[in-house]
Amino acid sequence: MSDDNAIISIRNLDKTYASGFTALKNINLDIRRGELFALLGPNGAGKTTLIGSVCGIVTPSGGRIHANGYDVVRDYRAARSLIGLVPQELATDGFESVWATVSFSRGLFGKPPNPAYIEQLLRDLSLWDKRHARIMELSGGMKRRVLIAKALSHEPEILFLDEPTAGVDVDLRRGMWEMVHGLRKRGVTIILTTHYIEEAEDMADRIGVINRGELVLVEDKHTLMAKLGKKQLTVYLQDPLNGLPAALARDGLEVSNDGYALTWTYDLHREHNDIAGLMRDLQAQGIHFRDLHTQQSSLEEIFVELVKERS
């Protein structure tokens, strides 16, 4: 069933290469207009193939993809004009200047010249001082900025960021995310793949996990963390325990090797996690504690567990 607010709609998408390798298996996915969707998965999971299929770079073996109602195969030019892509690789026209490269990219999509827009784009990406430099003269980080500028040159409604901050410096990463926040405010739909899972945790509205060509799940970020996350309570004791008294026995409760800590791992979505009861039982047993610490599982831990379970 399709989402009425979907700007990208993918149905029964398959991709098998001539070698016989199946990169995508029956992918069904709706990307909502204006959201930031994070696509996570290990290397070789199918992330780049999926993005390439939507952008018209990869020809699917089966299924259909629509971008804002346009079939990406039948209506390629109309669909592609809506999409900006920042690819992983740094292949750029080495002998062209930054200004010429970005301006030419805008023209490729049939957009009329707009020097004021290109200037603002280069300023936003800290490229204005390099506008006359040839691409081949730039550092890797600057080349990455040029790729972003090219992707945004035709003012797309949909932006794909395929591992955009891999191997770039902290300043560029921070600047990029400020720019992404600005694009979202303007209503641009953003699809992000990343190895920096904290980026997805900070920014995404929804998370999709892909593994071995299959979409494992698609979930609202907060719902995913509530459903699959775990919380851990550690009680630091004044005196060591030789073992766990029967009166304290609970699923997930363990004594540390040195006996000075009790650690209780429990599901966040379980209705009754009786921490107060544990505290009462400790008191009843004459066990005194000096400190408490709680820790919630991160999105990265959830992701690792999901992939492990389905491998």
From TrEMBL:
<dbReference type="InterPro" id="IPR027417">
    <property type="entry name" value="P-loop_NTPase"/>
</dbReference>
<dbReference type="InterPro" id="IPR003439">
    <property type="entry name" value="ABC_transporter-like_ATP-bd"/>
</dbReference>
<keyword id="KW-0067">ATP-binding</keyword>
<dbReference type="GO" id="GO:0016887">
    <property type="term" value="F:ATP hydrolysis activity"/>
</dbReference>
<feature type="domain" description="ABC transporter">
    <location>
        <begin position="8"/>
        <end position="237"/>
    </location>
</feature>
<keyword id="KW-0547">Nucleotide-binding</keyword>
<dbReference type="InterPro" id="IPR017871">
    <property type="entry name" value="ABC_transporter-like_CS"/>
</dbReference>
<dbReference type="Pfam" id="PF00005">
    <property type="entry name" value="ABC_tran"/>
</dbReference>
<protein>
    <submittedName>
        <fullName>ABC transporter ATP-binding protein</fullName>
    </submittedName>
</protein>
<keyword id="KW-0813">Transport</keyword>
<dbReference type="InterPro" id="IPR050763">
    <property type="entry name" value="ABC_transporter_ATP-binding"/>
</dbReference>
<dbReference type="InterPro" id="IPR003593">
    <property type="entry name" value="AAA+_ATPase"/>
</dbReference>
<dbReference type="GO" id="GO:0005524">
    <property type="term" value="F:ATP binding"/>
</dbReference>
